Predict the structure.
Amino acid sequence: MGYSIPTLAHLASQFERMPAVGRKSAQRMAFYVLGLSDDAAKEFADAIMEARRTVKCCKVCQTLSDTEICPVCDDPKRDHSVICVVEDVQAVMAFERTREFNGVYHVLHGVISPLDGIGPEQLRVRELMARLSDDSVKEVIMATNPTVDGEATASYLARCIKPMGIKVTRLAYGIPVGASLEFTDDITISRALEGRGEV
């Protein structure tokens, strides 16, 4: 019979439910929480509950925000005629880190995946189409991940949007900086050739 503390095991199991957190990492997190002072533990728990209470989807772009309209959508300096469609909030954060994109976003909260029973109606597609109903949007950038489901989602949305007379573009794919052509797969090299630009 092994050594076990049921309450600690239960705490670790809650951390293990998080994406990409394995059993050992979950145990380390549980031990970390146990090592906190009472005040720090309460602050940790309060932060979780406060985030659950206040963080909601932006009414415009569907990203997460603690205000009704997120700071990006509320910024008059952003180019609201260009919408970048992404799968999740993490993608918005990745774009914002570059400080290169000055348009706005639309978060789908997933991709179309027939094998998982996810269709357009489970995503924020209706909200995207509502945003495109006026004449202010000139371009929609498809920035879903280059996976089978990401490509299928981008193709589906492009078919829905093009008849509205709105330009639909797709992120260019290419060879990562620092990579060697010798070890790059054929599809990536083909996409890099298709998306090549003038030097």
